[in-house]
Amino acid sequence: MAVVAYKCPNCGAPLTFSPESQKFECSFCGAALTEEELKNIAPATGEEEKIPASQGAKDGVEVSLYICPSCGAQIVTAPTTVATSCLYCHSPVVLEGRLRGAFHPDLVIPFSFDREEAQRRFFDWVKKKRYIPKGYFESGSTEHFMGVYYPYWVLGCNSWAAYTARANQVRVWRSGRREYTETRIYKIERDGQIGFEHLTRCALTGEGNKLADSVMPFEIRKAIPFQLPYLSGFRAEMRNIEQKSIEPVFQEDVEKYAQQILDDTVQGYSSVYDQNIGVLIKDMNYKYSLFPVWAFTYQGADGKKYYYAMNGQTGKTAGVLPLDRKKLLRDCAALGTAIAGFIALLGGLFV
Amino acid sequence: MIKQALAALAASVVLFASVVPALAEGEQRVFDNADILTDREEQLLEESIADFTAEYEADLVILTERDSSVSDPELHAQDYYDEQGFGVGEERSGMILYVNMSTREVVACASGETKYTLSNQRLDYVVDAGFDQLADGNYADSFLAMIDNAASWMPRGEDPNAGNPNHYYTPVYEQREYPVVFLFAGVALGLISGGVMYKTIAKQYAAVSREATYQTQENTHLNLNRDNDVLIDTRMTSRLIQNPPSSSGGSRTRSSGFRTSSSGRSFSSSRRRF
Ligand SMILES: [Zn+2]
Ligand SMILES: [Zn+2]
Description:
The complex is a heterodimer. By secondary structure, chain A is an alpha+beta fold. Helix content of chain A is 23%, strand content 41%. Chain A has 7 helices and 20 strands. By secondary structure, chain B is α/β, with parallel strands linked by helices. Chain B has a domain of 165 residues: Roll (Diaminopimelate Epimerase, Chain A, domain 1). Chain B has 10 helices and 7 strands. A 6-stranded mixed sheet of chain B has the order 1-2-3-4-7-6. The longest helix of chain B has 27 residues. Chains A and B meet through strand 15, helix 5, helix 6 and helix 7 of A and helix 5, helix 8 and strand 5 of B.
């Protein structure tokens, strides 16, 4: 059974995960099942179809063929897809065969709001942005609005950090008609252990990678052990970046955050500079996870396309925004003029 | 021939006498009771004063003291000038610069004909000229600057506003021109802040991600084994504050142009704290 489809025990229609009720619902008869109840029902299954190598590399894109457990049609998928829906009967299918062994996710965060809510949140968000051209997000349309479980690596680790820096303490006072400035220069030394939890990076290469990283953070404390049915009704991707390729990225993250953390321990100075840090990472503990992302494009009336991603758990949105340069320029000019005017008036006090 | 020679000699003596100050050679004009000047500096000032007197037929006296009991330094300086019998000619023309190190006040007063030339307002400029050095403790330089400034007014003759109560308290700053530097600074800062705002917002809109993608506070735990802040150097710098004279000036409460000393003679004056 390489393909599974969850069916309603009452009517046989497909069951999908509903973010609203956090249950598995039948869109036909309205039945709603919990995760427990679903466990007792055997899903419909289908097989992977062996395809000739020549056909497998169509236009340089690797594809795989599966048989839909509902209607028997062929389902064509990208090699990293682990959940999708049948093109003919629209039944959700989960490609269980790709989630076995090392590719079995440890954690999943189910979607916490549905597509309508995601759209509403997006339009609310862009409405608050002052420098988006007026009416831009009313004139065009969203396309390919999809709920996607993206693969992420989540890392917990310990680190030893040795940190040195210089810091200045500046004191200014007046005596008579003179202003005195005293600068005290300190050598800062910090050594210690920093424990990291929930460092996260998208584990899929390609266009979506940057957007998928940008919608972080996820509230990983709320993640649950992975269960197949959560993917039903959504698209899901499996990882194509392995631990050893992601390690240098995490190494950089750890160094960056370690410096931030240690910078924060240097308090009471007017400036901190010449920071130097050495970090040794140990006790790495990786968790392979699937986290929810609403992905879509927006095509404006001017034909331009913008790509957006929204955290399916928290609603945080990432993506480039169209900019009304004229309006921004006008506001900047107003600010500049106000400041220039204020300082010029200040000069008037000395006339 | 001899007659002619005698006449020439007499003429040259008369000429010489008119150039040499009316006061006798070696008469003291610098009274450094506060002991803030070196002997060499006193000598320099005496020479300077002699030049001033010779050129403008006006006396010039410098008095320094450490006396915290002096509540009216102008009156004090004027009385000193009167009592010591300073001044050139019938009108006893001349000026006195008085510095009290205890109260840290500086006063310039002018008497006789000189008070019409060195009016209150012009004396303000005289004090201004030496104020910074005075505040910095460069006393000799300060006095020299004040003498120089006083000398610069002397050829201009009478101040048309001297003794006029309507003009006397014209605050110094009203005479000043608008500091153009503010205009330039305003334009420059306006351009910079407008530019920074534009760049910042344009960059925000063009960025895929605008907020932090990792919460260090919630997800990390720090355990420090070493936590040292060691002082390795201390550096001191100082600069002069360029205040407008109006804000550093002493308070004035008088309403008439000249004020009179204890003996009833009238003086122009300027007073300032340093
Ligand atoms: Zn049903
Ligand atoms: Zn089908």
